[in-house]
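Example record

The entry below shows one chain as it appears in the dataset: sequence first, then structure tokens.
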Amino acid sequence: MSTGRPKNKATWTDLEIYGLCKNWAAFRPLSFPHWDKDDIINEAFIHAKRFYKMYDPEGCSFKKHLDIRLYEPVRRNYAKSIGLRISRETHADGRKNQGTRKFVKMIYNHLFDDETTTKTFSVGFIEPQDLPFIPKQHKDLVQLLLMGNNQRQAAVALGITESAVSHRMVLLRKYFLAQFEKGQSFW
């Protein structure tokens, strides 16, 4: 016995999914003020492709399926991109991840309150002579570390997250190892 309700579309192309994400993002620029519209659309599309695998055409429409599921993962990635970590407290009765959400800054601006540190940041940097070349994107990080700053302080000075500094450190180590294997470094 048929209800007379039209069946939901079972297959969606990437272009159609992108169109749904575009419509979804059109109403959310105030939710993600540090991203432009294209950033919101692209982040939504990444998650929409994942949610498409879970879509059941016998249930709600795919548009409704996305409206229900998209906001939370996009919001989490947005928070990460602007330097916030979202976690949940343990609930009063002991259930984990059931309490209220906590937004914790990953960038600590109070570490560089001294004006002299920021003034000497880009003035008078002398590269180590035994390195043939330090990649341009890593010079500021190398300078801060040679000045005695730790990774957290370097992250604050560069205006990036601590995880980004850690990632750059991994790249620097790989670079230095490659230079050492080529015989181009004396360290």
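Notes for this example: Strands lie at 84-88, 101-105. Residues 14-105 form one domain.
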